[in-house]
Amino acid sequence: MTTLESPVQAGTTSERTRGERRLGLYLTLPSYLVMILVTAYPLGYALVLSLYNYRLTDPAGRSFVGLGNYGVILTDPVWWNDFVTTLAITVVTVAVELVVGFAFAFVMLRIVRGRGPLRTAILIPYGIVTVVSAFIWRYAFAIDSGFVNKWLALGDFNWFGDRWSAIFVICLSEIWKTTPFISLLLLAGLVQVPEDMQEAAKVDGATAWQRLWKVTLPNMKAAIMVALLFRTLDAWRIFDNPFVMTGGANNTEPISFLAYRQNVTLVNLGMGSAVSVLLFLTVVVIAWIFVKGFRTDLSQVRGDQ
User: Fold this and answer.
1) Which of 18, 36, 130, 296 could make an S-S bridge to 240, C-beta 3.0–4.6 Å?
2) 46-64+96-295, CATH topology level
3) Phi/psi at 61 (nearest 5 deg)?
4) CB 237 within 8 A of CB 16
5) Residue 176 pLDDT > 50, yes or no?
């Protein structure tokens, strides 16, 4: 026997959702229009250039190759080497920053005395220009002028002479620089966790670890998603630190550096544009995966059923 849903259940949530979508569209439409005007032409032109064999040093030799540039890139070991480098930097930095950032956020939330100075101190690295930060870390780990080797009694160990030791330093610099950004986003999520739920869990005998997994984290998944999404996209497009520290040497070149080298150094606009388009597509895929993966959690935060 079929049953009819009550008008309240059938209509209220649906109408609320439609209203929220309309409001969201109205609020974001001006930004969308500006972004389209600013980015549509460069993206479109890059897509067109990627279909040509085109070097600035030989403008008369420009020829249409279709998807030929993409075939060359995807079958070249250089692309996959840079892909692995970018993936390693992204996974390591985002994972460590999420854990350390949550610890910082928790401390900033719970501490009472000296809260202002503590938050300021934590945010100092994020306020430093990335290029300046990269130079600081480069000199700290340099063979001649660095102090890290002296502190660790490593002698003349060349951190930038090996691929993985250089990537380790790059990851350290990224973690130091951007963990405050993660901690700010997570702090906003921690503030939204209902205190009465924490107290109820205590009364029920839940340990601190159980409260973390059963109460705190489920109620701040929206903040975690935003932090992970923003930081992953930023890490995937890393450029400054590898450029300053290694110049892409010893297989430390990320995808963005490959695009720069093709476009600027080799003035191969066709191949460089193809790399840039592939980089853009990977960013879109990453964003889609995060949004799809957290869609249910975000709807629950909004209160949809």
Assistant:
1) 130
2) MetI-like fold (1.10.3720)
3) -90, 15
4) no
5) yes
Residue corresponding to tokens 């799809």: 292
180/126 Cα distance (integer angstroms)? 6
Higher pLDDT, 173 or 293: 173
Our measurement of the distance from residue 297's CA atom to the centroid of its chain's CA atoms, rounded to an integer in Å, reads: 20
Interval 171-193 mean pLDDT: 90
Going from N- to C-terminal start, the domains of the chain cover 46-64+96-295
